[in-house]
Design a protein that fits this description.
The chain has about 290 residues and is an alpha/beta fold. It is built from 11 helices and 10 strands.
Amino acid sequence: MTEIDQSFVDHIMPRRDPEANKNAFGRIVCVCGSAGYTGAAYFAAQGAVRMGSGVVTLATPEKAWPVLAVKLNEPVVRPVPCGSDGMLSHEALPALLKLAERADALLIGCGLGRSYTVAEIVTTLIEKAPCQIVLDADGINAVCAHKDILQKAKMPVVLTPHAGEFARLSGIDNANPAELTLFARKYQCIVLYKGHRTLIAAPDGALYRNHSGNPGMAKGGSGDVLAGMLVSLCGQGIPAVHAACAAAWLHGRAGDLAANALSEYGMTPSDMLRLLPTLLKRYNTREW
């Protein structure tokens, strides 16, 4: 098992080309949100922005769009068709597939809600999207009855379950490292298993363990920030396994900074977003 620390992450994070433009740093699409669950989409999109993506597009149901269009400044917020329940409808699929065609990485799931239609849309995107995919929250729930679809993706899908989500997905409660590795091998995916010591299992059998993070991060929205950070790194061209490792450590370390400054009780995911850039200064090309 490989232990993830500052040195490990330093070897992953690239220096930026001074001559680059926004397209060089990844075009990200987040398929997230539903009526009443706008916070998850907000945190995911902002996580991608703060992690350095060149262009972030949030595709969200039209009933969630008015809230998110006001809350978000940097991402492009695209309304897509939804049903009376405020969740994605079948009519949204053509627009989502078109957005995926131009994306360098695709995040699916944060705040999407659960329905038969959502599950159909998620599985179709997994099978047809040409780019790296990250599945979080309701994206994971959508494939619980369709796990074989993971093997049809163009490249290994990254899943970011906590213990409860992985139990629904696999039928295994409190999975151990060997069980995570077996699942990743069988379905040719990458599992980022969130917990006190987050584990990342790769389809080749490699296993990584993170050592940053604290109990103050156990709040709604924290996992959405992580998903956004992870898809951002994938879109910037970092191999998915290394992107998962770096995102897990940086996310936990941002949480540690927030806890030290504001307390485990009082810190929020918004504080983690605010403090993340202080961790990324070490990767500047030089002092400006």
